[in-house]
Design brief:
Structural class: alpha+beta
Shape: globular
Largest sheet: 10 strands, mixed
Number of helices: 4
Radius of gyration: 16 Å
Helix content: 10-25%
Number of strands: 12
Number of domains: 1
CATH superfamily: ATPase, nucleotide binding domain
Distance between the termini: 41 Å
CATH topology: Nucleotidyltransferase, domain 5
Length: about 170
């Protein structure tokens, strides 16, 4: 078995999930049958297809597995972009994750623990099998998490200004 490490910064917005390469609505439909169209994930014997209808607002995103499933979508999308994923590969994912600054202080530890210790998760995305182990998660206020998607570029500057407005983000050096 081969291991591949990947860092996947994710802003877990109530409206949109945002990674370095993708923005998608924080919503999906669940079913027993493979969807005919769209991006879907097969996980735990169920099918999940991304939807334009978002999940209702959740202050605490750890109350059920909905945001975990959305995270699996995000990891698979980023792994696909980096051309990772093979039958004999375990992707070890590190997740810098974003929380609204308003709730950060009360929820960051709980949100980090939400992702950890689940072991290897097996699923298919777009018909490709993935084995993903989330090895670490670190929560940041959402705008900071957005900046982490371009960390290599930001690290060389003494001062960086970020502005986060839901589906969009601007980073000024």
């Amino acid at each position: 078995m081969m291991y591949q490490k990947i860092i996947v910064p994710i802003d877990h917005g109530n409206r949109n999930m945002k990674t370095e390469h993708k923005v998608f609505t924080s919503g999906f439909v669940e079913g027993d049958c493979r969807p005919a169209l769209g991006e879907y994930l097969h996980y735990g014997g169920r099918y999940y297809a991304l939807a334009e209808q978002r999940i209702p607002y959740m202050r605490d995103k750890t109350v059920d597995d909905r945001f975990f499933i959305l995270t699996l979508f995000a990891v698979a999308m980023e792994a696909e972009k980096q051309m990772l994923g093979a039958q004999d590969t375990i992707i070890q994912a590190v997740l810098p994750v974003g929380l609204p600054p308003k709730h950060y202080g009360a929820l960051y530890r709980k949100f980090e623990e939400y992702f950890k210790g689940r072991g290897i998760q097996q699923f298919t995305y777009k018909g490709i099998s993935y084995k993903v182990e989330i090895t670490d998660a670190a929560a940041f206020p959402q705008d900071y998490a957005a900046a982490m998607t371009v960390y290599q570029r930001v690290a060389e500057f003494n001062k960086v200004v970020t502005v986060e407005s839901g589906a969009s983000r601007w980073i000024t050096f």
